[in-house]
Amino acid sequence: MKTRTIIVFLGLLISFSFGLFSCGAPEGQWKGTIEEIDGVTWVNNPQEGIWDEEESHEISIQQELQIGQMDGPEEYLFSYISDIAVNSKGDIYVADRQWTDIRKYSQDGEYLMTIGRKGQGPGEFQGLGILSVDSDDNLIVYDWRLTRVSVFSDKGELIQTTKELMPKTSLVPYKIIARDDGYLLFGTIMDSLEMFYEVDSFKIFHEFDSDWNHKESFIEYEYTDNKEFEKMALNFSPGNCFFGVNGDILYTKDYYDHKIFLYKNKELAKVITRESDIKKPYEVHMFHDYKKAQEAAKKNDYNLGYYGRKTHFVGNAFLKSLGVFQLSDGNIVHFMSTYVSKKDWGFDVELYDPEGKLLSCSRIGENLHYDMQCKDSNDLFYAIQRGEYHKVIVFRLKY
User: Fold this and answer.
1) Are 349 and 334 spatial neighbours (Cβ–Cβ below 8 Å)?
2) Whole-number pLDDT of residue 196
3) How confident is the model at residue 29 (pLDDT cuts 50, 70, 90)?
4) Superfamily covering domain 31-281+318-398
């Protein structure tokens, strides 16, 4: 009787575990490891996700809206979209760097108004860069050339134009987050562009107070492979970081090295990794002769080339991070562009549960490239699609 009782108990336990799986990832089927190293949690995932063999968990994208046309009314024609922002009502702001204006649309894509124009006066722009929205739905605009911020009300009225931020430095932000006590910028601050190639380390997150005075910088950039190349080719995109409602920061490098970093209170708390056939995000060869570098690039059909003053790099990029986000259910989404050939790239998505355990890695598009900009509270993603003409794509992830 005792043996039979144990068997029945085990059967109930297995049934209970299966019931848990229907609501989330089962502990028993995950084949990764979790370890603590110097106070940091490392979640090491295998190449295959928990869902990867199940047809019922296919991941896809569902487009909800497109703003932008090849031909049509002027308010729907874009030359070069530099950023997108969304307010709490679902209204969409689109900055066009070449037209030097910002257009506002309803959540259904209906044109509402144009904000700003070219110039150097209050509320005018020279180099439209970054857009953000604060808790009062005010629009925050950073100008790359004038290195200043303009703030507009929800109705498009100018509230503030700041003085030049951090003069005599090179301030290059890629994302601005408005907080109750000030602002957080993602990007770089250097004494000058020339010094950038000489520094060995720099920080990528920068706190400003409510009056736009710089308070401190934190989180040092870690080089993936070739420090000299990365300093020359360093790039960020708005999608490389995501700020959670609790203040947590998710971050990936532009040249994606299969690591998603989670910071709590400005300190690294967790690293999520995944095994892959692609061991390095890029491979480069260094030349000091410009002609030889060009010849090597042409002969080997490389997709990557950076030519400096005395040092030149050519090679191939294999993985590019397009955006990391956390959904309302806690799952973590990472979009990436994966090398197939020089002319062919895959649009892939990694989906992790809230702990960082891989659920699936799926290809959701071929030769489809989205510059991921932001996500709203309804888990709608906003991206720029460049090509024959620029347009805004709004979609949600289905799984």
Assistant:
1) yes
2) 59
3) confident
4) TolB, C-terminal domain (2.120.10.30)
